[in-house]
Predict the 3D structure of the following.
Amino acid sequence: MEADVGRDLPGSEDDDAGRRLERVYREHGDRLWRAVLLASGSREVADDAIAEAFAQALRRGRELRDPAAWVWRVAFRLAAGELKERGRVQTFEEEPTSGMPEPFVDLWRALENLPLKQRASVVLADYAGWSHREIAKALGSSVSAVGVHVHRARKRLRELLEDDDG
Amino acid sequence: MAELKDRFAFADEIETVDLWTEARRRAIGPEASHVSLPAWSPAWRRLGTGIVAFTVFAAAAVFAWDLSHPELGPRPRPAPAVDLSAELPEGWSELPAPPEVRSGAATAWTGSQLLVWGGYEFTGSGDEDPSGDGFAFEGGTRTWGVLPDSPLSGRSDMASAWTGEELLIWGGFDGGFREPPYLDDGAAFDPLTGTWRRLPAAPIGARSPFSVWTGQEMIVWGSTQRFAALLDGAAYNPTTNTWRTIADGPIDITDGSAVWTGREMIVFGAALDGNNDSDTPTAVGAAYDPQADVWRELPPSELSPQAHTAEFLNGELIAWDYEHGTAAYDPATNEWRVLPRVPLSFAECGPSSVATAQLVFGNYCGQTVVFSAEEDAWHREPIPAPEAEDGCCWIHEPAVAGDIVLVPSLLYDEPPERIGVSDRRMFAYNPPAVVRTDAMGEVLDPEPFIPQGAERDGNLLRLPVVFPDGTEATLVYPIPLDLASLGIQPEVSYLWKDDPPPRFPIVFLHDPQASVAEFVDGTQPVGAVNSWVGIEIWRMSDDWSDRRLLPRGHWLRYDLESWTVLVAVERPEQAEEIARSLLIRETEAGFPVVETSGPIALSHESGEGEGPMLAVGSTLDPSVLLSIERCTGGSGVDEVLDSGAYGSACLANGHISATIYGNASTVEAIAQGLRIDDFTSP
């Protein structure tokens, strides 16, 4: 039903904006969802953040110059806000995904031990492959502070994973 | 051990769900509007109703009230704040025209919407009736909608205030249908639920008063009514839904302004009679302290008494008189200083103004000017309204929307051609950002702080450091590292001793008059912890709290001799306790020291840089971050990236950990050269 995408949407009378956004979803949606899951530790938070971020993007229609970057940024902010509302900034709601290989399960458990800013920074850097400048823009931080968060997160993760391996 | 990136790659095996349909459902929403200007539809009404068929109105502007509040629950959360200053181009731009342009209306920026209620649309006929309805401009979708019906009759020039949750309205002018033509009732509108409630009866009589919002109360005082000389007033507290009377004012004012300084309401202007004559040779003013319920008179201003407007900006009352004289009054020193005149030619007009956190925007017979604290002067900012070929004149009604000024404008025709409105527009003024940049255009952080006592010692540079917990040390660097421009910015946060995170930041700005616009919502504090120690309470901007992953809340603002300090507070009722438990002072060397007691403790784990930051070079990047953190091991480069390298150094016999960022050779050099002398733990 691709031809219908974007039709009926408030604030975006043309189909082009909706189609463009669906392409963004198809290209980025899965990776964005997994990144938010890794940062938040909650499927529910990830579901809500991604759906809401794309819903808000659809409402804005052609206003968005770079919808992919916009959606990533908004999804992470929504997720952070939801975690704060739930008082779950520190602890994960989910158990490690069943069927995942051991190295990932260990990583999942280690991530829970990081502060949220470090967690979000290292996920965006090492899973999403973003530069520190892009992360800083998304998280509203400075490039240097993001660097520190990523550095400290990696150091801490390695310590935790070495303990596990040991 | 598998590399981190390899471990992260396994995440691609996690099954996902398709959320595209859900996103579209949320975007579309369950209801459609069947009118060209959609009516208000409170979010709670549609919640729980499930998906309702959506009727296409592709060509109509759709009011996005429902659409921006998709949350489930009995009471929706506020819409995300809309930062129009980030979305609009600098300078002037144009937005969708309002359905009407109201003069004498109550206006409020909620963070995402501009509410406009009451007032009248000027047509030139001279018998315009004030309205009892209103409109809202939705910043996110840039559409206009109508407000739900109110229980109030039409009126203009009423007291009004935005509390953060409700638009309060009281009193006002009814258009001259009775004698005296003033009203004594009020109501509150909650934009989240789209509902009105009536205010209880006030203990003062009908009038068109001056009013301010203090953060706790809407104070209404005096009257613009000539010959009335009303000196009494009252204050309404929406939390308790009660009024209290306030002390009578010492002066009469009929034409002027009321502003809130954070501690006092200042009323400034003159009492004029029917011939525009004043009893006083200059404009006069008085200040009311709501905590002490006491008034004081301002010293003479030397401004003319015929007409004037005033706003509060950067700690001063910026006043502008009928003859374009301007002056600034500082409540802290109780003194006036003369400002450059407004660069406009004289006309038979009364100036009006509004203020954001950065500027005062003035309007005079359709000519517009801006006063910025940085320039300390006025300059013209003409509105790019089209030439009035057929009509007569443009009427502008500026209103503040965060950091920008929205200006609904109308062009009216003059008799004998026609009486009426021939054009409506809405312009937006987004002040050019004042941003410090380096020669390459990179945005710079605040000035680094170089504490007194930094000194050369042979081929070493010695720098005193005080940690937030009082630990003192002297950092020693080899001069060949070229640290001449080094500085230290403390990074501190605190936490409730018995609670889990989050931790709350304490932000230090190395300027006692630093702008807090980036951190706060609104142009004025919403309260004060304790007026005698001068700690203001500001509402934290949603955007800031979201970006920094903090709980929404408030800031306590401390003014030190060299610093402006902001302390995050989640709930305003905690403000007093935190202020009692948190001592922030400045050492003789100019270094801010934070001490805690009671239920809170300092945290070194959650500041932006997670400890004192040592800026190296001119970029102000925190190239060295220090923390009181036990460590072992040596010093050196830990990690080399495309963008630079990270290293660490363990200092002061394992008491202080340093994280170093820079290019690999610099990191190596700093890690090897850094040392601590004179370590003293409290």
Observations:
- Residues 495-594 of chain B form one domain.
- Helices of chain B lie at 4-9, 20-28, 43-46, 84-87, 542-547, 575-581, 664-673.
